[in-house]
Write a structure and sequence with these properties.
- By secondary structure, the chain is an alpha+beta fold.
- It has one domain.
- It is built from 3 helices and 2 strands, in the order αααββ.
- Strands 1-2 form a two-stranded antiparallel ribbon.
- A hairpin with a 4-residue loop joins β1 and β2.
- It is globular.
- Keywords: Elongation factor, GTP-binding, Nucleotide-binding, Protein biosynthesis.
Amino acid sequence: VIGHVDSGKSTTTGHLIYKCGGIDKRTIEKFEKEAAELGKGSFKYAWVLDKLKAERERGITIDIALWKFETPKYYVTVI
């Protein structure tokens, strides 16, 4: 996924992974709670990919991320 800084790449990708069943609702709810505690409630989907503490605190992606999941029809790899 390619785009400008702060254009929502991680958020969009995390939301896509969630909607396709690549991550469960309980995990998203956990991310939402943790993000809200840092005043970044809207970052819950970005946290699917943003694992580093610095990424979560600053609200920016520092490291590249790779996520694999499958739907009933496809195997998906997100880079």
